[in-house]
Amino acid sequence: MNNANTRVVEMVVNGRTVTGSVPDRKLLCDFLREDLVLTGTHVGCEQGVCGACTVLIDNRPARSCLMFAVQADGRTITTIEGISSPDGSLHPVQRAFHENHALQCGFCTPGFVINSVAYLEQRDTSEPLSEDEVREHLSGSVCRCTGYTNIVRAVVQAAAEVDGQRAEGGGE
Amino acid sequence: MTNSTTATAMGSAPQEEKFIGQNVPRKEDRRFVRGKGCYTDDIVIPGMLHAAFVRSPYGHARIKSIDATAALALPGVVAVITGRELAEFTTPFVCRQEGAPPMEMDALPVDKARFAGDPVACVVAVDRYVAEDGVDLVEVDWEVLPPVLDMYHADDAGMPLVDDKLPSNMHTRESRSYGDIEAAFAAADRVVKADFRTQRLTHVPIETRSVVAVWDDGREELTYYGAAQTAHILRTTLASRLSLSENKVRVISPDVGGGFGLKLPLFREEFTVSAMAMRLKRPIKWVEDRLENLTASNHARDDAVSVEVAVKNDGTILGVRADLWADFGAYAFYPPSYIIHVVGWLLLGAYKIDNYEYTINVALTNKCPAGTLRAPMAIVTWATDGMMHRVAEELGLDPYEVRRKNMITLDDQPYQSAPGYLYEALTLREGFDQTLAEFDIQAFRDAQKRASREGRLIGLGIASVVEPTTYGSAWYKASGDDGSGHEAATVKLEPTGTINVMAGIVATGQGYETSVAQVVAEALGSDPANVDVRLGDTHIAPYGMGSRGSRGAAAGHGVAYLAAMDLREKVLKIAAHLLQRPIESLRIVKGMIIATDNPGVSLPLSEVARIAYNDPTSLPEGMLPGLEIHRTYDPPFMTFSNATHLCQVEVDPGTGGVEISKYRVLEDAGTLINPMIVDGQVHGGVALGIGQVLLEEIHYDEQGTNITSTLADYLVPTMDTVPMIEVEHVETKNPNTPNGIKGMAEGPVQGAVACVALAIQDALAVAGATLDQLPMTPSRVLEALRESRGPKA
Amino acid sequence: MKPVPFVYHAPRSLDQAVSLLDELEGDVRVTAGGQSLIPMMNLRVVRPDHLVDLRYLDALSGIELTDTHLVVGATTTHRTIETSPLVRRVAPLLSEMASNIAHIPIRERGTIGGSVALADPTAEFPLAALMLDAEMTLSSVRGTRTVKADEFFHSALETELAEDEILTSLAFPLEANRGGSAFTEFSRRKGDFCVAGVAAVVRLRDGRYEAARIGLCGVSDRPVLSTIAGQLAGERADDATTNRIADAIADEIEPMIDGRATVADRRDIARTLVRRTLPVACERAAAIAQGGNR
């Protein structure tokens, strides 16, 4: 990139404080993938439509292709690499995707996992999660391989476990 | 998922474990759910540069000059190359088709751009951002020409030529005739006509095309990292066009984010990047952005079927005449007649029709070139079942009865279709009957009437899918197409007992690392966890024909199974020699070779391996060391699978919106290796078909600009578009393939296009409205309903 | 698709922000959520020289209730508005319309000010502003002014907002929110830009309309209020009335011609949406009247 106007940014990514020197126009998704070598966040459209690039910013899901790295200065970010535990064990959502064959090529999967984790962590748990509720709130991620049936099943399965954990007041 | 019993009962020896037919959870999932896959854009090579392309904004324009001065002056831009310069050290791609003039395609166009998005120059820079800045600064002097945009008028007087080396924009006009079509039409009580039109589509894998080309100046070898469904064929082509020995090119297809038939040919961008890597002696990456993917990769479908059906009043079909049209676009990555001919020979579908004539008309236009999108012949099932419904309508008969009586049964098979294809072990009638038995059509018709009185329109669609899955070499020969249908595999039992399988098929999400491990584990008495599957690297995998169509199961897994069985034979010969037991008495259970007549006598597979590599003098007399077996397999001329799809829709007459309320599939793909994976393929294919009927469409305006160039304009199915899909399986083994495997992947697309379209047509018919064009958008539905209501008083 | 080079600015106060707009030369864009702007920048359709980010202007974010107004800061996100118990209680139309915008991740970043300032003809919040008589506060180095919704939207993507002005807040008079409200839109897929949308706010007395306001998005180059909805006053709130007014509105509107739907389509869809929205608003109005909800 033009070496004029690079800016130092600092943010917490997957629990670790990181710094970088970026041009103003560098997209957050490119910063994550290239500067931090966190290639689990995928780029599918750079328009905010496909959802593959979704990360958690201050614990809320957001498209990393629609943000500049400089805008993430001072923020806390979780990428797919930060979803499983440090010991390698899977989040209930990741496990449910695997058990329900809810992924084929895997390219959209990080976005789906992030969006599912975010939604399950903040939804109203007074009712168990229904398939309709999944379709209502997770249709912002596009998959071309699976036809969604198994993804819906996986999220419903994960919800039961996440609801239980939230009731106990524990996290992962 | 079951494990076979290993407890002995009544003195019987343990049984070998079966993995074929098991829902083994996928091995590849672990890296994908954690974001640790390695896709092409994840690959970084030191010193890597980045490419971007200058593209034509016009649908048709002559390139008068290209001035890269300003671009080259931009800090960070390393090089700019044009088609003229590339032509000096590369050769064009020549697409041959029997009976037609060949079509040539340069690395990048030299004289003119033939569609909006056509790449005409490549900028290489320190990163993609600067490369795009460089693209902005390249000045192209264009002479705009009128574009050819309508396949039906491509040859009108005054139309410019799309390919100046060809005599006409109608590339192919051919007819094929079978039986006695004249007699059939002469004997008909009635001739029924029907039309079917599909739109222009594109693949939209979530991962766009991408490549990293690396030139090793020491070895003078090129490594091409990029999705390559047919990696070996790509290597051969790439080497040839760069005038490199085939030995000097390595293609590595890493994890691929979906192929769907897109990531097959050697595209011009990837080729140009490879040529530039060689020239600059620097690794170069190019990642297609979504705008490029929608406008300039491959398009698909955009075809039409017009049929005339000669019938008797009792619904017997005497003969069919079909006129087929295809808008092929501006360049030939495939022989232009290839796909539409598949529509031609498949059009008779599930029905016994002896007299048949079809004509194909393939037009070149100033649009992105057409290619193979999963189920390229998808129009077929809709047209076939649709024409039967039209026949029934005109004769005043029940459409399901008309279909039933003309449908091929198991007893009819082996059945040779009019164009000469052999159908075996297809449960077309049986699946249809089972579907109808499980669904109360009368109750549905009653519900339909009640709904209509409430102002609601509901409809039913049932599709009978015939899916050609695996093309043998004999088919290619008979069709006059270049290529083979065989597949290759090498199976190795390593010295420590672990197993490696390499095959020529390439993974793009189908779960091959699991399913191939299953067939090999079963053959060798091991476990899928002990079998690693290596695909997509031409230095490692044996030369194969790759992943296209639905050949992965029958061809790819078939050959892996055969190779593993050959290896098993050698292993058992060694074990028999070492254990001093007859070979027939030996089994392999969980990696242990046991003697059935004395289960206490056993030998680990790993010990056989150790001896084969490190102690070969202990092998049987005359046996060579090592445990690596290579095998090829040429499938039969054609292998088919079949399915019956059923769906219910509700058409909202107030908005034109369509909701699918029920979707069921009865699938017969012969022996299933991993039913869970097959279900996933059904779901995914159905979703694609639904997208084709309801949402997806490429639009060119009158200037030839593609105005559906973002995912906000080109709409693909999202979770709310696709209902839960119920799948049931019947496994009727194919008599000719290993294990009776048939394969499947494209049939669900055919089935969904057909049954959703038929269901909408059924719903609209309640209101007296008709629609025979895809996609069936709200606008088209509302228009159809308005027309049926007639002019307002 | 990568954006052109630009200089990024993140002012720490409104004064700094408006000064930047005054001083900077070239194409200067203001951003908060960026959910509409950044796709345009990535396509290089928008090529700013400068980007002024409002992220540090805390005063521009937040929801406050005064005696007379619900005041929403311009950089309040759609998601905040959607889920705010205060908004749900006091201006439920606003939260209902917010929930129709795109998808959750977009709503977590997108802001009401950004949506209103962009004025996409199919957008929900411009219609909400018009329906609820919002008063927009605009700031520049030249001072502050207030513009009412019915003067704010000029045409597609064109508003009263001057190049050097920043929309800082929207004040919704509580009076305009009284009654039962509902919003329905028709789009190709959930979360897409709608083909058309209808909003209704009604008050009932003894089974008859006391007041009614019906507005539409996606049928013109800007949000529109039906002028004939006022005719509902005194009419019975029943299906016959609903159908009559739906037909009338379908004829009243003058839909634009674009590639997404024909004029006839928009009339049909508008008619359908009015038929489906008005009864819901009436139900809610009746529930309020009974329950004394507010």
CATH top level label of the largest domain in chain C: Alpha Beta
Q: What is the name of the CATH superfamily of the largest domain in chain A?
A: Beta-grasp domain
CATH architectural designation of the largest domain in chain C: 2-Layer Sandwich
| Gyration radius from CA atoms of chain A, angstroms | 16 Å
What is the H/E order of chain A? EEHEEEHHHH
The name of the CATH topology of the largest domain in chain A is Ubiquitin-like (UB roll)
CATH architecture term of the largest domain in chain A:
Roll
Give the end-to-end Cα distance of chain C, rounded to a whole number of Å: 50 Å
Write structural notes for this entry.
The complex is a heterotrimer of chains A (172), B (793) and C (294). Chain A folds into two domains: 6-82, Beta-grasp domain (Ubiquitin-like (UB roll)), CATH 3.10.20.30; 92-168, Orthogonal Bundle (DNA polymerase, domain 1). Helices cover 33% and strands 16% of the residues of chain A. Chain A has helices at residues 28-35, 92-99, 109-122, 131-137, 149-168; strands at residues 6-13, 16-23, 54-57, 60-63, 76-78. In chain A, strand 3 (54-57) and strand 4 form a beta hairpin. Chain B is α+β, with helices and mostly antiparallel strands and 793 residues long. Chain B has 20 helices and 32 strands. In chain B, helix 15 (512-524) packs parallel to helix 16 and helix 18 (675-694) crosses helix 19. The radius of gyration of chain B is 28 Å and the shape is globular. In chain B, 60% of the residues are buried. By secondary structure, chain C is α+β, with helices and mostly antiparallel strands. Chain C is built from eleven helices and 14 strands. Chain C has helices at residues 14-23, 37-42, 78-83, 85-90, 92-98, 104-109, 112-118, 124-131, 149-152, 239-252, 263-291; strands spanning 7-9, 28-31, 50-53, 63-65, 69-73, 135-140, 143-148, 153-155, 158-159, 166-173, 180-186, 196-205, 208-217, 224-225. The model of chain C has no long low-confidence stretch (mean pLDDT 96). The chains are: A alpha+beta (172), B alpha+beta (793), C alpha+beta (294). At the A-B interface, helix 2, helix 3, helix 4 and helix 5 of A face helix 1, helix 4 and helix 18 of B.
